[in-house]
Automatic annotation (TrEMBL):
This is RET5 protein. Belongs to the calycin superfamily. Fatty-acid binding protein (FABP) family. InterPro entries: Calycin (IPR012674), Fatty_acid-bd (IPR000463), ILBP (IPR031259). Monomer. It comes from the Eukaryota. It comes from Heliornis fulica (sungrebe). GO terms for molecular function: lipid binding.
Length: 135
């Protein structure tokens, strides 16, 4: 049975965000700004439904979805694109596939103790973020 990811998580660290954003064709000014942000995550996980809020001082991004059901995701706040998104479990990892203009786009969330890990991919770039559960 997959873990319940419900909780509030504070940003700890990230690696390779600038190259990941470059792969999404984000302009240099916005890339520099995003690399300075320290986002928090709030996850509400109820059965087959999830809400994942990424919270920053600049803007929040909310994903509200049912597991295993494809939906059109509007990534306008991120990079101006729309994609067909499906989020499902692969073992203990929550896996998101985002089909659209960019090859190999998606992410994975998993827990290691009280830390939430996020691995984001686009094209050949990988960005890893770590968050600490606070409640």
């Amino acid at each position: 049975m997959p873990p319940n990811l419900t909780g509030y998580y504070r940003f700890v660290s990230q690696e390779n965000m600038d190259n990941y954003l470059r792969a999404l064709d984000i302009n240099v000014v916005l890339r520099k700004l995003v690399c300075l942000l320290k986002p928090d995550k709030e996850i509400i996980h109820t059965g087959h439904h999830m809400v994942i809020r990424t919270i920053t001082s600049l803007r929040d991004y909310v994903m509200d979805f049912d597991l295993g059901v494809q939906f059109e995701e509007d990534l306008g706040p991120v990079d101006g694109r729309k994609c067909q998104t499906t989020v499902s479990w692969e073992g203990d990892q929550l896996v998101c596939e985002q089909l659209g203009e960019k090859r190999n786009r998606g992410w994975r969330h998993w827990l290691e103790g009280d830390q939430l890990h996020l691995r984001m991919t686009a094209e050949d770039e990988v960005c890893v973020q770590v968050f600490q559960k606070v409640k």
